[in-house]
Amino acid sequence: MKQNDDACDVLIVDDEHAVCWSLSRALASEGRKTETAASAEQAIERCRQTPPRAILLDVRLPGMDGLTAMDSFRELAPRVPIIVMTAYGQLSTAVSAIEKGAFDYLTKPFDLDDALKSVKLALDTAEHGNLSSPTSSQGFESLLGQSAPMQEVFKRIALAAQSDATVLITGESGVGKDLVAQAIHRHGRRGNKPFVPVHVGALSPSLVESELFGHVKGAFTGASDHREGLISLADGGTLFLDEVAEIPPLVQVKLLRLLEQREVMPVGSGRVTHPDVRILAATHQDLARLVEEGTFRRDLYYRLRVFDIEIPPLRDRREDIPLLADHFLSQITPRVSHVSEEVYAHLLKGPWIGNVRELRNALESAALVARGGPLLPDHFSEHSRPTSRGSVDSLPHAVRAWLRELLAQEELPPRDLYDRLLAQVEPALLEETLRRVDGSRQEAANWLGLNRTTVRKKLNRYGVE
Ligand SMILES: Nc1ncnc2c1ncn2[C@@H]1O[C@H](COP(=O)(O)OP(=O)(O)OP(=O)(O)O)[C@@H](O)[C@H]1O
């Protein structure tokens, strides 16, 4: 690579004048010499003459797009770090960028400080000859999102796919943890090998061990034959442990041995095998809290979260709702690809405690009610609320959301959180119980497991009739 004094520090490739201007100014204030190009073709020409030390590259450009141009940059200047910028990236954009060897991936609008930090790191790393080499790329879409938090998730999936590290995926029920695990597998080097999901919570605790590790004939009553475990079935590929918090303590020890020593011993056998398995795990629970409470092993927790990906709840990334709604609707009724504006407006207001799964179910139900006609907000009235299972599951989420909102509005620190929460939930509990026992205070007290005097006092306090 030709590198001389004409070389600028950073070549900014973007057709938006304002972006070039603000980046140039910020970089110049750090003493960096910059140049700009409004198209990939222009940038390639510039690179052919004198390669820069780093490239900031937009994806959407007039003519050749940024990702295609990366191949030319790699050929002309293989050791020049490229930082990809994109306004609205899909998972495949992030994966392609990282696979093609992008040093970093910035989602617009980004913080100028973040861009400066990334450029500095790129220049320092290139100086020490440490850039990772590119590999081949391919894309496959099913995980959607245009919000900034989802762009960050895409970036982390792309990074995780480049390695074999164990990944812990966290987020509330229905946010897409399963899809994220599949995407990491599919985009990684094991993509054409088995992906074996295990829903730990659905297995009885006594079965988890033999399901995962297998068993030999006669290992326990009912073990009439030798049986291969799921870990061995995933050999060469990926084992996805969904709801990993549910793993019983004894099996946690065996799992730790698998992660530390790559060893598997079937139940009842003295023979150890060494399958080549990548482990991905997911949970909607707060594993760190379970560690503090002593129900989940600390050493296993650290082994599982070598790399972590946290998927935010849908209510914290409402910008994704229209995209997801259109996607699900076109799956349900292929003739319709867009939700009307008034339905968008309605959906944007929903609490979506059950996250993307609940949104999908709500659209399915509404489409049934609409009977092939256009969807209207009324069609959702019953369904944009949590489902019955969802509402039981979602009570802790609702409490968290309530606390988050309260803290956002108030001077800190509060002094009466406990009483205030009770004041929110007790009247509803009392009213609903009384309604169901036809107003009998004695029966309500029985249902509540409280004595009658306590119930009377509470009814008086809240003015419940
Ligand atoms: N970003 C997304 N784009 C498209 N579909 C999504 C997305 N996120 C979730 N879904 C869909 O929502 C449903 C729930 O997703 P998934 O099963 O991956 O959630 P989860 O977090 O694993 O839930 P749980 O904790 O209950 O297992 C699936 O039908 C999935 O296809």
Report helical residue fraction. Answer: 40-55%
- Sheet bearing the most strands, described? 5 strands, parallel
From the spread of the alpha carbons, the general shape counts as globular
How many helices? The count is 19
Mean pLDDT, nearest integer?
A: 84
- Radius of gyration, Cα only, in angstroms? 27 Å
> Regions with pLDDT < 50 over 5+ consecutive residues?
129-141, 383-391
Number of individual domains: 4
Modified residues (4-aspartylphosphate): 58
Domain Sigma-54 factor interaction: 143-368
InterPro entries: AAA+_ATPase (IPR003593), AAA_lid_NorR (IPR058031), CheY-like_superfamily (IPR011006), Homeodomain-like_sf (IPR009057), HTH_Fis (IPR002197), P-loop_NTPase (IPR027417), Sig_transdc_resp-reg_receiver (IPR001789), Sigma_54_int (IPR002078)
GO molecular function: ATP binding; sequence-specific DNA binding
What do you see in this structure?
Residues 9-123 form the Response regulatory domain. One of its GO terms (molecular function) is ATP binding. The modification 4-aspartylphosphate is found at residue 58. It comes from Kolteria novifilia. Its main location: cytoplasm. With 465 residues, the chain is of the alpha/beta class. The chain folds into 4 domains: 10-139, Response regulator (Rossmann fold), CATH 3.40.50; 163-310, 3-Layer(aba) Sandwich (Rossmann fold), CATH 3.40.50.300; 314-388, Helicase, Ruva Protein, domain 3 (Orthogonal Bundle), CATH 1.10.8; 415-465, Homeodomain-like (Arc Repressor Mutant, subunit A), CATH 1.10.10.60. It contains 19 helices and 12 strands. A 5-stranded parallel beta sheet has the order 2-1-3-4-5, with helices on both faces. Strands 7-10-11-6-12 form a 5-stranded parallel beta sheet. Helix 2 packs parallel to helix 3 (66-76) and helix 17 crosses helix 18 (441-448). The chain is globular, with a radius of gyration of 27 Å. 35% of the residues are buried. Mean pLDDT is 84; it is low at 129-141 and 383-391. The structure holds adenosine-5'-triphosphate.
